[in-house]
Amino acid sequence: MSYTIPIGPYHLALEEPYKIEVHCEGETVTGADLKVGFNFRGIEWLAERKNLTQSIALMERVCGICSNVHSMTFCLALERIGRIEVPARAQYIRVVMAELERIHSHLLWAGVAAELTGFHTLFMTCFNLREDVMDLLEAISGNRVNYSMNRIGGVNRDILCPDDIRAGIRTIRGELERSLIPIFTQDRILAARCAGVGVLAREDALAWGAVGPLARASGVDQDLRRDAPYLVYGELDFQVPVRAEGDVFARVVVRALELLESCRLVEQALDRMPAGPLHGPDHYFVTPGETTMRIEAPRGEVFYFVATDGTDRPRRVKVRTPTFANIPTVLPMVRHAALADVPLIQASIDPCYSCTDR
Amino acid sequence: MTAQAVRERVGGAWVERSDGWWCSVRSGEILAIARAVRVDGVRFAALTLFPEGDRMRFAWHWDCEGVLLTAEALADPGQAVPSIAGTWPGADWAEREARDYYAVSFEGRDSTPPLMLREEETPGVLLRPGGKEQA
Lengths: 358, 135
Prior knowledge:
The complex is a heterodimer. Helix content of chain A is 48%, strand content 14%. Chain A is of the alpha+beta class. In chain A, the strands form 3 sheets. Chain A has a 3-stranded antiparallel sheet with strand order 1-2-3. In chain A, strands 6-7-8 form a 3-stranded antiparallel sheet. A two-stranded antiparallel ribbon of chain A has the order 4-5. Chain A is globular. Chain B has one domain (3-134): 2-Layer Sandwich (Beta Polymerase, domain 2), CATH 3.30.460. In chain B, a hairpin with a 2-residue loop joins β1 (14-17) and β2.
C-alpha cells in the first residue's frame, strides 16, 4: 500500500520547524520531499543595511549553537579584504572559543541522538557535560550562547582564567574518555540500532555537497582546519577522524572522536597562547574588495562571500551554513530505508534549521 | 584528482586569489564546466549571486582538497542561466534559493520551486528596497 506521511513543520518529533513528506510503500520509504524556510529572517538583506560592526552582531544570530563561528567567519572575511593583521593571542583565543563551541555542539547532538535511540541515561550524561562546557564558555565571555567575542582585527575579551579553563577541559576530556566515548564507539546496542542505517555513499556525499562530520563519516577526508588552515590551526596537532561506512553509526563515531580532538586543541591553544594585545586599533577602514571565507564549523564548512565598497556597510554578505548543504542528503539516505528509521536518519546529520533558514 | 588537474581539465584562464582560483566564463558554458569538474574528490560548495549594475554575477564554487575553485559569469537582466542541478544535486537548493533572493531563472530544470519563500510570495527578496534609513 502506498501512502504519504506529512511530518511538520510543527511536530512533537521535531526540534525546530521543518517539513518532511515521507512517501512509503508498506514500511519502506520510496522517497521524500523536504520543505524549509519557516524561520526565514532575511539576514543577508539585513546585513546590507547595517554597518560592519552591527553586522558582526547580526551574524552571531545566524545560529543559536555555533554563533561564534559566524561572527568569526565574517570578521575573518573583512580582515582578509582589508589586509588587517590579527594579533597572535587573539588567534589562539578564537581557536579556544571555536573548539569549545564544537564540543558544546557535538554534546548537544549526542544527547539528542541518545534520546532518539531510547538511551535516556546517556542523554542525561551528555547534557550534564554540555553544561560544564557552557560554564567554560561563560567564564570566558560572560555568556552561554552569544559570546560577542569577535571584532574586526581581534577579540573583545581576554581569557583571564586559562588555568581554570585548562582544568575544566581536562575534567571534560576525562569524563568523555571514561564514559561517553566507549559507549558511542563500542556499545553493542547502540551499534545495532545505528549500523547500516541511513547510508550515504562517498560519491553521493560529494555530489550532494555534504560537509563536516557527515561527509567524513562517508569516507570524505576533508577538514578545512587541516586542508586550508586559518587562524593558528596549522601550528596545532590534531587528527581528523574519518570512517568509510557512511551510516548513522559512523557519524556517531566520527563526532565522538572529534570531541577528544577538540579537547586536545583547546589544551594546546591554552598552552601555546602568547602574551600580547587582543586587537589592533579601535577603528578600521575596510578597503573595497571581496572574498570568500570558509571555516570548519561543528557541522561542517561555513561558507561566506563578503563584498565591501569602502563605506561602513557591506555590499553583499552571502552565508551558506553547513546544514543548508547537509539537509538535502536526507533524500538519498531515506530512500529504501525503513519508515521507523527516518527520525534517526534526520537527526544523524545534526540539523540546525534556524541557521539553514537564516 | 588534484585542484591543479581539475583546472587543467576545465581549461580557461584561472586566476589565483587569496581565497582560491577563479575563472571567468560565459554563462552558457557553466553546464559543460560543471560536468568537467564532476570528478572524484570534488565537492559542490555554493552558488553566489551578486548584482553588478543591472547585470547579475553568478559564481559557482567547488572544493577540491581544501582549494576553492570558482567559475563566474555575468548574466543580462532576465537572462536564464543553465542549471547544473542535474549534474550536481547539491546545487538544487542553491538554485532555488537564488531564485528566491534575486528572481533569476535557470534553464534545464522541470521547475524551480521556492525554497525559503512560500509559493504565493514574489521572488527577489534581496532586491526589495527599504531599511537603509533605519540602519
